[in-house]
Amino acid sequence: MGRYAVTEEDPTPRLAVLGAGVMGVSITTLALGQGVPVVLIETDPAKRADAPARIERELRTAQLMGVRSERPRAELVTGRSPADCADADVVIEAITEEAGLKTAALTEVSQVVGADTALVTNTSSIPVDELAAKLPRPDALLGVHFMNPSYLIGTVEVIRGSRTSPAAVDSVGRLLTALGRRGVFVGDGPGFVTSRVLHRMINDAARVVQEGRASAEDVDTLMRDCLGHRTGPLRTADLIGIDNLVDSLRVLHERTGDEGCRPCGLLLEKVAAGEHGRKSGKGFYTYTGVVS
Question: Where is the 3-hydroxyacyl-CoA dehydrogenase NAD binding domain (predicted)?
């Protein structure tokens, strides 16, 4: 993706984020730390009230890791309705991995934002064209798959649908420049590149543990130290959120028919037990003091 100068004539894009879950908070943390103001929309009152504290913790973590920009921290505004993001240049949807919920939220946003506002879905697996087909402005939508934590990972997957307009691509390009992120364009389709490859691998890794052939620690050690995976697939599953991973695997299985994407029993058991990974305090590993 090309680089776009942020100037007085072409100022920092105004960003709105839909959803204060793991990815909504992560993307908001990245933006605020890079000096990009955010309107964060969350309909759940408890999540909305807790979001600023969660973001503060993530901003401190980013600073301790030395990945925060030297720009002054930008302003965060929280709201309860898509109407609160009417002035945004770009709206990023980061809600549950369910096509009906995503299209409903994006449709509601389309009715209140300007005609030039770009709409972005952070879906990890649902094809952009599938979502765009249900929207009043299909040309405004493209996918930007941010990884978690967004403030640490400097590259994002960008998916342009068959009807995505050049103007929407340009708006998102300016945003990614302001966020200090590199976008890599890939073709549309279930799971795109990263989820299509990674999520099946995580599923297979969980099956190995389920079959009793290795512990989660041993699987991750081998994948990390022998094959160069940064954290190991099962620690990555905890970071993604095992519930989110299962949702994504179901999308992939339904849309590709690939049996390797059917969520394995161990993943389903962990979701049923509330062991969702880092955000719940327990997944394949146990976490203390980091629950978001």
Answer: 15-188
For residues 107 and 94, give the distance between their C-alpha atoms in angstroms, rounded to a whole number.
14
Question: Which of 158, 154, 124 is CA-nearest to residue 141?
Answer: 158
- SS3 of residue 160 by DSSP: strand
Q: Which of 88, 64, 79, 78 is nearest to 16 (CA)?
A: 88
Distances (CA, A) of 188 to 22, 32, 69, 124, 181: 24, 29, 32, 11, 20
Residue 154, classed as helix, strand or coil, is: coil
Question: Which 3 state secondary structure label does DSSP give 118?
Answer: strand
Task: Report which DSSP code applies to 54.
Answer: H
Mean pLDDT of 241-258: 96
Identity of residue 114: G
Q: Two tokens at 173?
A: 């390009």
> In terms of Cα–Cα distance, which of 142, 132, 206 is closest to 170?
142
Measured CA to CA in angstroms, residue 118 lies from 48, 54, 168 at distances of 24, 27, 5
| Domain 15-186 of CATH type 3.40.50.720 | yes
Q: CATH 3.40.50.720 in the chain, residues?
A: 15-186
The CATH class of 194-277 is mainly alpha
pLDDT of 106 reads 97
Q: Is the pLDDT of residue 9 over 70?
A: no
In Å, what is the CA distance from 57 to each residue of 37, 108, 124? 17, 31, 25
> CA 232, CA 202: separation in Å to the nearest integer?
9
Question: What span, in angstroms and rounded, lies between the C-alpha atoms of 127 and 101?
Answer: 14
User: In angstroms, rounded to a whole number, what is the distance separating the alpha carbons of residues 148 and 150?
Assistant: 5
111/107 Cα distance (integer angstroms):
7
- Specify the DSSP class assigned to residue 260: G
Q: Count other Cβ atoms within 10 Å, centred on residue 1.
A: 17
